[in-house]
Amino acid sequence: MDQPRTETGEGTGDARDKTPRTERGRRTLRKLLDAAAVEFGERGFHEASISAITRRAGTALGSFYTYFDSKEEIFQALVRYMSEQLRDHVTPLVQAAPDEISAERIGLESYLGFVREHKEIYRIIDEAEFVDYASYRRHYETTVERIRQRLEAGAGRGEIRADIGEIHAWAIGGMNVFLGMRYGLWDTEIDISEIARIANDMLANGLKKKD
Length: 211
Description:
- The chain is mainly α and 211 residues long.
- 73% of the residues lie in helices and 0% in strands.
């Protein structure tokens, strides 16, 4: 007998492909992920529940299992989803920058703005270290890889020093993470553009005393 079909367009067997095939399915998946971001962000992984996620999403409990088999699985998907949201927010802005130094300023400024709008990202990424370490590491590695590619492209255009590399990219990534914590989560009154300007001046000119 045929298995019942779901919003993904597939049967309900364990091996089904859960990728949504329809716009309706994609909307439902986004609602579940957005609801999961709020639920995990407010309550943490261990206190969060699938039923609470579906209530927040305004979907039936059965809809959850169309896309995910467990709380762990939606958490893993959520880390990817938030990483992709951050990428999609920042990338077009830095790509439009006139040069690499400006791109890093714009990148930090847009990152701080994203954090202020999505404060839950820090709790979710921090918990990923213990819930799903592979997702946690992937988030930072892919984020820093984008920075490295930008830096090397800027070096290739002669806009910054030629010996730029991975360590520089991790240093910038680490700076951005802690500035995001301080001025995205803890203190949201300071002007984002001024924070980015000061950090960018340090990148461009270092800490050496000016004559």
